[in-house]
Amino acid sequence: MPHTARQERAPREPAVPVLLVLCGVLVAAAVAMVVWPMVGITVTVPPTSSSASAEKRGIPAAALQKTFRLAVPAGAQDTSYLVVPGDGSADSGQDLYLRFRTTPEGLEEFLTSLGETTGDLAAGNVVLEQDDIDSVDLPWKIGTKGRLAGLYADIPEQGDSAGAAQVTVDETDAAAPLVYAHVTV
Question: Which one, 40, 73, 97, 138, has least CB within 10 Å?
Fold first, then answer.
C-alpha cells in the first residue's frame, strides 16, 4: 500500500475580528437611524452659488423661449437671462429675467410675441424696476436718465396656466434699444 501523506493546510486567519467590526458598523448605523429623527438634527447645506452667478449669457434656448411664450429676436446682442424656479407649490410659477439689445424691428418682434406692439409702450413708465432686478442679485442697472418706456403684458394661457410680463425699454439709443423683461408663467 502506498504511503499517502496528508498535507497540512495553512492555518486560516481568524474571521472573528472582521465579523465583529462589521457587526459594530451595522449596529451603529441602526442606532443612528433610530436616534436621528428623535433628536431633530437638521443638516443645513449652505448655498454654493448666488443668483448672480446663475445668470446666463446668450440667447435662451428655443425650449425656454417656448416655455415663457416669448421670442427673443434674431440678432439680439448683449443678451443675458436668469431663470428663477417656483417654490414647488401649485400656484407658484417660474420667472425669467431677460436683457438684450436689439433693433427697432427686433423690439417690435419681441413685443408682438407677448401680444403687444411698440405703440403700447408708455413713455417714462419704468415697469420693471431696479428693485425687482436687485432682488434676484442681477448686476443689471436700468438707467434713470434717457428715454425709458414700459408696459405690462398678459401672456395668453397655455394649457392651464397664464403668464405676465413686465417690460422696460431704454430707447436712449433709438437704433439699438435695450430691453429688460421679467416674465412669469
Answer: 40
C-alpha dist (Å) from residue 146 to 55, 132, 181? 26, 20, 18
pLDDT tens digits for range 30-42:
777 776 666 655 5
If you search the block for the grid coordinates 413713455, which residue do you land on? 123
The residues, ordered by sequence, that sit 6+ positions from 29 with a Cβ below 8 Å of its Cβ are: none
Q: What is the dihedral of CA 99, 139, 166, 59, to 10 degrees?
A: 20
Q: Report d(CA 73, CA 80) in Å as an integer.
A: 13
3-state secondary structure of 81: strand
pLDDT value of position 91? 64
Q: Scanning the structure block, which residue is given the C-alpha cell 425687482?
A: 132
